[in-house]
Amino acid sequence: MNTYLQQYAPVPTALDALPPPPVGFTGREDDLAYILGVLDPDRTGEGTAVAVLSGWGGVGKTTLAYATGHAAQKRDWFTGVLLVDLHGYDPRPAQAEEALEALLRSLGVPHEHLPPPGAGREALYRSQLNLRQEKGERLLVVADNASAIAQVQPLVPSGHHGMLVTSRHRLTGLGRMRTVNRLQPEDAVALLEAALKNNDPDDPRVGQDPEAAERLASACGYLPLALQITAALLAQDPGQPLSERADALGGAQSVLDGLDDGERSLRTMFDQSLERLTPQEQDLFRLLALNPGPNISTLAAAVLADQPQPATERLLARLAASHLIERTPTARGRWQMHDLLRAYAHEQATATMDRGRTPRRRYDQARDRLIHHYIQHAEAADTHLAPPGSAVSARFTDRDQALEWFDAERENLMASAHTTPQAGLDLSFALSSYLQWRRHLQDNVVVNALALDACTKLKDSLNKAGVWSNLGGALQDLRRFEDSLHALETARDLYQQTGNTHGEAITWNNLGNTYRELRRFEDSLHAHQTARDLHQQNDNTNSEAAAWNNLGNTYQELRRFDDALHAHQTARDLHQQTRDTNDEATAWNNLGNTYRELRRFEDGLHALETARDLHQQTGDTNSEATAWNNLGNTYQELRRFDDALHAHQTARDLHQQTRDTNSEAIAWNNIGTAYRGLGRVDEAVVAGKQAAAMLAATRDWFYTGEAWGELATTLTAAGADTAQVREAWEQSAQAYTQAGADEEADVSREHANSTETVEAQPPAVMDLPEKDAASESG
Fold first, then answer.
1. Residue 397 CB partners (closer than 8 Å, separation 6+)
2. Positive or negative, the Cα torsion across 288, 291, 297, 302?
3. Lower CB density within 10 Å: C or N end of the chain?
């Protein structure tokens, strides 16, 4: 015989059945299996089986508890279920004594035999459970909606009975913990459809517009309660398309306004959770809404709260225990908030600021502190990305730590750049090298465009030319060469107007690089020559050498290798004069590539080995890897494929150390060509696929096209079937098209459409010519 209990606030009374899960219960298979594993009577270990389900309001904890109770009953694990709602987040939560009274009455204890509140009542409860156990009965106690351990601890059954507890807090120490998270997108759509069809079995809306259903589920944050409320509102308006409802949620002043069906409200549930916090915890929750990005570090939260870091960390941990925030799963010391809770926190922060001038000033100051923190740290981290020998900030121990910080904070920094014109300008300079390094090329364009806007708003003509120049470089990295040209020409003209010949010369140098990419080689020569002459006039020998170096790269494209040799030798000699070892190594690297084109392979090896050794001396690991890569290319020309393989593998390993994914991918491509030269075609195919995948991931579409073409040639050499080879050529054509390289795309497309097998080609290695550091905008 089963026993059931339900509470009518605040004291429970018995019901005849455990409430069934709502229609559409789905997506909880892993959670269900975990909890059943805790409740299984055949589990190993001794003691009461207690599972604690925690999660934010509306995530479906109660539903999961009911579903678990039913599943356990079907397995005949329990002879009865006791259910008590502790109303932990109501204005008057049920006390443990009240819950014990209801549980005892449901166990058959007459009212007149109930002891007064206290230890006697708890002792009688345990005695009753022990008697049931002696009779061979096993009961499941479900304590729903608890807010504190004190509510639950006296209810924990003894012996072999089981217990399920649900709470918006992590009630540690009671039993096995399980955090209930939002649904997966496909499960959220399934719940929405089931709820709609429960109201009207013929409701066709999800099937008719699955894309709108996905948008609606996303707008509901994949929370079961939000989805149930939305389904109820849709049921009230059977003619409303899902797309209209999704647009309404997305366009509302607050998404929470659209998640209230008159009986249930997500905002009310969040209010209940907030009211359970201390004033300090409430204040920090509201302040976290001021962070412009998706997550925040403990240090940044301490800056925001203007509190010591240890005290802030304790408050953050309590907010996490209340499931109002959560630890990010990928990094320690970082915290994030569900989108709907973020919307709620914004409401709370706005309401606080609207109370008067004093709270608004306090919140404004908190936001300013946070943005200043981000800018200061970004500027400090940027110093570690400068060429070896440059002064670095002591905020970070080394380049790796600086890159790790940038990686963790990138989204916050990009969001911060949108907050004020000054933040946009400052962060454009601090982020440019990092974004280029990590190949976040579109972000680099965006932040420089923001900075350009800022210069106009701030009437900052001093920095405007520099920002235009940086924007030109960012657009060049995206292979948007016409746009890059416009930006750089604008920068050049502004520098000319202000008489800043140094900035003008650097911009001419960058213009030359863009012209070269556009294959406007005569214009490129003119630009680099102009840059060279201006630097000569300014007695800036190092920058003059940079212009010579890039001039040599253009001569190489024109296959004027003797002129290229002279240019790179001049650059090398000038850098030697200024004792700039790192840039001298750059010139040696490009000299080595030129010697290879002249088929002076021994001279090429000497030049590249010199470049490698000099980069080792200066500690420039990434440039050392570049030299190793080009050494490997020269070895391939000499058909010394074992040496080539060693060189390219060394380059790959060094690029992995510096986390330069793009250059590592190029090394993988060249490893593939070396394997092919050795006849190890299976390994060549693996390396080629790795290169193509990595280059596509970094969105370097031109080199992706080249890598797929190289892979197609390797597949041909491996005797792969025609369909595989054709697919590789098609991938090559698509990548080239995305890069805007139409001529190259047409060639790959011709190979793909050819009815004849394309003969295996000699290895097509990828060079890594180095632009001189001084060529970058300043």
1. none
2. negative
3. N
